[in-house]
Write a structure and sequence with these properties.
Elements (H helix, E strand, L loop, with lengths): L6 E6 L4 H10 L5 E7 L6 H9 L4 E3 L17 E4 L6 H17 L4 E3 L12 H5 L4 H12 L4 E7 L1 E2 H6 L3 E3 L5 E5 L1 H12 L6 E5 L3 E3 H12 L6 E4 L1 H13 L3 H13 L17 H8 L10
Parallel strand pairs: 1-2, 1-4, 2-3, 4-5, 5-6, 6-10, 7-9, 8-12
Antiparallel strand pairs: 9-11
Helix pairs in contact: 1-7, 3-5, 9-10
Length: 297
């Protein structure tokens, strides 16, 4: 008689926007044994109690302090990171320490929810002008060089984050935007993790819509008459990036550099995995009225 063995999972950053939703969805899969990493478990007793009630453990550690996560991955089959600090160096160095620990302890799979941007069509020079992307490439190259199975889940722009910026755009209003939601991404990540042998790269695909279509959907639900507002052309955006750099405002220049890539249709994923398909348009119609933003007009 075979004995059921759950898949031991360690989730990094279970309290964040994406991490909390990933945790909620992981708990829906009975074949998973969920463990979490917290900076201070004593301050999150409800979360600790929830995890322990399912047979899991809450470990104390912080990716900002690599020594605090030594051997934290011992006994784990899969490690999932939803850790996205604003500090680029912490993101890279913290994850490198975590991945090294995974390798040393025989972890079979590492899951890193990634950018939905396809940056393969951009030059090194273009990427170097954007915040976070050079560091992301450094981390990705390090991961791919390790003797560790990787499950990479990418996604389009989160609709919640997109709407928080208002209906403004650079370049052509007819360009397509691929939208997914945090909830959709979390659900797909958990579903993929529940399949112990699933490795490789998969894209959580949202329906590609033009900005005008998104604005129209918003107006139908809200009963408003919003219009998208142009910030300027791509050439004007490029000039603004250069101006910020020349003035010494490097952070602003890199933020605008990332916006330049995000507004370029070269960043859209061409091929999506059919089994992980998410319709962002359904989210617009079903959930947009519940999003707590003031009128975006």
């Amino acid at each position: 008689m075979s004995t059921f063995q759950p898949i031991n999972i360690l989730l990094i950053a279970p309290k964040g926007k994406l991490g909390s939703l990933v945790l909620k969805n992981l708990l829906n899969h009975p074949n998973l044994s969920i463990n979490i990493l917290l900076q201070n478990p004593s301050k999150d007793k409800n979360l600790v109690n929830l995890i322990e009630s399912t047979g899991g453990k809450a470990f104390q550690g912080d990716l900002k302090n690599p020594q605090s996560i030594k051997n934290i991955t011992q006994g784990m089959h899969t490690v999932i990171s939803a850790y996205r600090p604003l500090e680029e160096n912490i993101h890279v160095e913290g994850h490198i320490a975590l991945i090294q620990d995974c390798v040393e302890n025989g972890v079979q799979r590492f899951v890193l929810p990634s950018f939905g941007l396809d940056i393969s069509k951009f030059s090194v020079e273009e990427l170097s002008q954007a915040v976070f992307l050079p560091q992301w490439m450094k981390l990705k190259n390090f991961i791919e060089a390790q003797p560790l199975n990787i499950l990479e889940i990418t996604q389009g722009l989160y609709i919640e984050a997109f709407l928080s910026q208002g209906f403004t755009y650079w370049g052509d209003i007819r360009r397509q935007i691929e939208l997914t939601s945090y909830e959709d991404s979390a659900r797909v990540i958990a579903k993929a993790v529940a399949q112990a042998e699933m490795i490789g790269s998969y894209h959580v695909s949202g329906q590609k819509l033009m900005l005008r279509e998104i604005v129209n959907a918003y107006n139908r639900v809200k009963g408003t008459s919003c219009e998208a507002k142009s910030k300027g052309s791509f050439e004007e955006l490029k000039a603004l990036v250069q101006d910020k750099r020349q003035r010494g405002d490097l952070l602003a220049a890199k933020m605008l550099g990332l916006e330049l890539i995000m507004n370029d249709e070269r960043s859209l994923k061409e091929n999506n995995d059919e089994n992980l398909n998410v319709k962002a348009e359904e989210f617009l119609h079903k959930n947009i009225s519940q999003i707590n933003f003031d009128c975006l007009c």
